[in-house]
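Structure in, sequence out. Go:
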């Protein structure tokens, strides 16, 4: 059977396939650059694993308190080496990105301290962590003051505003690398470095934390290479490589990581406890695969930008812009467009392809959210997934794909869906 016929059996018409193939051909040189970055990052990870002398003893399971968990300790060394930090906390007990961020923030802030976001509103779930939106147990309830300086209209830093916002109580600044559910640009590691230098010139002892979610291995350097004191992320996004079934990480300065560890377990216990429950092999192997998995996801994002921009939809980043995370936003302008797109992504999945996603009121979000995911790991967004809050401008945020071929199928399927539902009429 020819490939074209196989695609047709999977619901992709020859016209949609041809449209996609033409775009793919034009993206050859961009895909090459993505592959070169993956090669560089693959070497970083292997070098880190060799330096930590990883062997199969590190894959053994521990239970109970988890004292002397060799695999856990070695995994944390590998993360620290890979991301050029002094120390790391990489645990299944960090149950999500939000949790890891909460542990990093609450471990390092004390009552009366100020937390500053110089890059505008943080990711939705952090609003309740910080207390921007009323919530029980927020940092605000513990006496942490929050300040925010928005980006300027062109997406650049408001340096004057930031200078004015920093004062003697400013303890920690939080910089979100990825756009999250916003249509602002994602920050490059270079830009993050400039911001950190600016802030540290005003107040050298301020802790600079970067929410690194979706950014890992997209570039050759990470925020820890440009002055970040802590980077934080989720293992069911980039660095888990699709294999980690749970987990989060914090990498950075020894004292920041230690303080976070006393918050995660208990004062006095810190990093010494926390059984790895047999998950170490998945964590190691996932990190090992992550650079190539991220490359596949990036190709999908670039492909989607090109597919939808040509059809007249606004896309962030646009078809030619450089990439600093794996997320692609496409603005459809109507709930119908968003829903059709997400349902197409779902229909392309290896798992739960027969399910039809619908918008629902998800905890932590202020509007109904539709999520498409046919994932091996529930909620994993390094796997091909799309989500959209059902509110203007009706943009869908699309990310992941453990392989480029799967990402490609998902995008073609979404396009087919939009055509079949007459949301778009022709492929120009
Ligand atoms: C996903 C994400 C988070 C939260 O991670 P969860 O694992 O979903 O809790 C925080 N910040 C950013 C930028 C993210 O993309």
């Amino acid at each position: 059977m020819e490939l074209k016929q196989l695609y047709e059996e999977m619901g992709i018409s020859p016209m949609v396939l041809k449209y996609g193939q033409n775009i793919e051909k034009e993206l050859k040189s961009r895909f090459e650059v993505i592959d070169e970055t993956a090669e560089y990052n693959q070497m970083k990870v292997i070098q880190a694993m060799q330096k930590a002398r990883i062997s199969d003893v590190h894959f053994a399971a521990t239970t109970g308190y988890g004292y002397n968990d060799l695999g856990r300790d070695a995994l944390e060394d590998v993360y620290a080496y890979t991301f050029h930090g002094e120390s790391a906390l990489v645990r299944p007990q960090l149950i999500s990105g939000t949790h890891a961020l909460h542990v990093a923030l609450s471990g390092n802030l004390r009552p009366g301290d100020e937390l500053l976001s110089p890059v505008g509103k943080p990711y939705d779930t952090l609003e309740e962590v910080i207390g921007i939106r009323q919530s029980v147990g927020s940092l605000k309830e513990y006496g942490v003051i929050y300040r925010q300086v928005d980006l300027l209209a062109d997406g650049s830093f408001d340096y004057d505003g930031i200078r004015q916002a920093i004062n003697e109580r400013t303890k920690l600044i939080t910089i979100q690398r990825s756009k999250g559910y916003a249509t602002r640009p994602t920050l490059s590691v270079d830009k993050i470095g400039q911001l950190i230098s600016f802030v540290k010139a005003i107040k050298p002892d301020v802790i600079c934390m970067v929410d690194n979610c979706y950014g890992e291995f997209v570039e050759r350097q990470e925020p820890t290479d440009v002055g970040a004191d802590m980077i934080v992320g989720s293992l069911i996004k980039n660095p888990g490589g699709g294999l980690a079934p749970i987990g989060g990480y914090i990498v950075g300065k020894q004292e920041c990581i230690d303080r976070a560890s006393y918050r995660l377990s208990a004062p006095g216990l810190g990093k010494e406890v926390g059984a790895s429950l047999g998950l170490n092999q998945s964590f190691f192997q996932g990190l090992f695969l992550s650079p190539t998995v991220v490359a596949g996801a990036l190709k999908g994002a670039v492909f989607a930008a090109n597919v939808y921009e040509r059809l007249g939809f606004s896309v962030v980043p646009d078809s030619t812009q450089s990439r600093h995370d794996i997320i692609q936003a496409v603005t459809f302008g109507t709930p119908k467009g968003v829903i059709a797109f997400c349902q197409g992504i779902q229909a392309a999945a290896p798992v739960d392809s027969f399910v039809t996603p619908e918008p629902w009121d998800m905890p932590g979000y202020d509007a109904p959210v539709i999520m498409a995911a046919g994932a091996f790991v529930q909620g994993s967004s390094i796997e091909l997934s799309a989500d959209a809050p059902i509110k203007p401008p009706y943009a869908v945020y699309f990310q992941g794909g453990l392989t480029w071929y799967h990402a490609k199928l998902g995008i073609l399927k979404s396009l087919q869906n939009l055509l079949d539902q007459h949301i778009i009429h022709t492929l120009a």
